[in-house]
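Design job #97: recover the sequence.
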């Protein structure tokens, strides 16, 4: 009895869904799966069924042509019953005459159902879209597994506007008795520019002439840029992921987290007052070192691009970082300072520096200003003078702006060590070959 009651409830809900879906359409689609439900019409006997398919005989006062509706309705029902390949449930057509219009609509729906979910755009085969990897990227990942560099690929950790992050277990360097971090991640840059179309604006002098009009080549340069930026930060002692291997748009990085659980972003983390103060101090110290030693500006700094793990702040997503000689470097830095000021102020940290004061503190510049507009104008003027200086072939270390400012970019970098060339762009291919980029 209970089973019958449950079945009745299920049938009632299914019928309601079926009625809502079909509406007043002449061609209806059944929501029932498995055996057909009973119909409210009487089942035909064998004699009645044979007589149903018989074409009515002609009478002297009535002639029939190939366009006769009654004849075609019987023939259409016969076609559907015998050899009509329908990929969805239509119910039982026994004893039902099917006019041409209904038959044609069934054909259209059957065709759609056959190819629904099967048709794949060609572009998806050659691009990394959302969380789908293209064939060439999968081959590179497989080679890293076969070489022993990676033991196991576990699964996707996150997906952003520019890349997909996949967690994996580290192995050993091919041909070397050197272990890689126990936990690593594949960072795969998407080869579609639909998400972020302004990449070229963030390419500095290191990559002049390396970018063509091909989108894939631009993404490969973008990935190489992140490798070099991460290596610069590591050499300066700034906490960030370690680059284990790099191949085209794929990076193998050390994993910040444990047991497959990634570290929280600054936006996600819950801080005590002391922890929040420590994070802010680490941020200021990291920005100072990044500018003075690494000669870089993050250019996309926000609470989502900073990780908080075991009381330590880590910088991530360095693909947009630019050299201080970039024409918009100071503008990007001021925008980063604005983002960080808003975040820490919203978290209730006391004595948070405003964006202008933070900018001056991390750069060592003293820029007189009355309001935000004059401050931005001063930054833009300084950038313009710097660009003119580089166009005349004068290095940044022996150049001083002839302006009313008390300090200049020359003062900012005069005490820092001589900039080293980037040379750790490891290429993991067939046998783990390596290459360098200045």
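Job complete. Output follows.
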């Amino acid at each position: 009895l209970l089973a019958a009651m449950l079945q009745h409830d299920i049938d009632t809900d299914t019928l309601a869904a079926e009625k809502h879906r079909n509406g007043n359409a002449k061609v209806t689609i059944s929501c029932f799966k498995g055996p057909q439900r009973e119909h409210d019409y009487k089942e035909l006997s064998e004699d009645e069924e044979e007589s149903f398919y018989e074409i009515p005989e002609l009478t002297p006062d009535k002639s029939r042509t190939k366009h006769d509706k009654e004849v075609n309705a019987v023939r259409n029902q016969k076609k559907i019953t015998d050899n009509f390949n329908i990929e969805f449930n239509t119910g039982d057509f026994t004893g039902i005459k099917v006019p041409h219009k209904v038959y044609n609509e069934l054909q259209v729906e059957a065709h759609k159902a056959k190819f629904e979910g099967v048709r794949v755009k060609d572009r998806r085969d050659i691009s990394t879209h959302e969380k789908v990897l293209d064939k060439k990227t999968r081959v590179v990942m497989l080679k890293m597994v076969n070489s022993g560099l990676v033991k196991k690929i576990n699964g996707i950790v996150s997906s952003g506007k520019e890349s997909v992050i996949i967690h994996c277990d580290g192995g050993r360097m091919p041909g070397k008795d050197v272990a890689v971090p126990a936990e690593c991640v594949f960072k795969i840059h998407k080869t579609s520019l639909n998400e972020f179309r302004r990449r070229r604006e963030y390419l500095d002098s290191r990559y002049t002439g390396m970018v063509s009009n091909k989108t894939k080549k631009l993404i490969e340069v973008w990935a190489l840029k992140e490798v070099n930026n991460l290596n610069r930060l590591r050499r300066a002692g700034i906490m960030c992921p370690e680059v284990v291997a790099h191949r085209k748009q794929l990076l193998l990085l050390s994993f910040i987290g444990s047991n497959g659980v990634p570290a929280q972003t600054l936006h996600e983390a819950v801080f005590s007052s002391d922890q929040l103060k420590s994070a802010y101090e680490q941020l200021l110290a990291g920005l100072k070192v990044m500018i003075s030693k690494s000669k870089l500006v993050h250019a996309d700094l926000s609470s989502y691009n900073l990780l908080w793990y075991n009381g330590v702040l880590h910088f991530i997503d360095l693909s947009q970082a630019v050299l201080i000689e970039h024409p918009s470097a100071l503008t990007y830095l001021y925008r980063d300072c604005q983002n960080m000021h808003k975040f820490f102020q919203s978290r209730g940290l006391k004595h948070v520096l405003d964006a202008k004061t933070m900018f001056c503190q991390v750069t060592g510049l003293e820029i007189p200003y009355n309001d935000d507009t004059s401050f931005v104008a001063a930054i833009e003027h300084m950038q313009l003078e710097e660009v003119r200086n580089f166009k005349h072939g004068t290095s940044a270390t022996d150049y001083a702006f002839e302006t009313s400012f008390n300090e200049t970019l020359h003062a900012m970098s005069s005490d820092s060590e001589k900039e080293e060339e980037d040379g750790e762009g490891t290429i993991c291919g067939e046998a783990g070959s390596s290459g360098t980029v200045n």
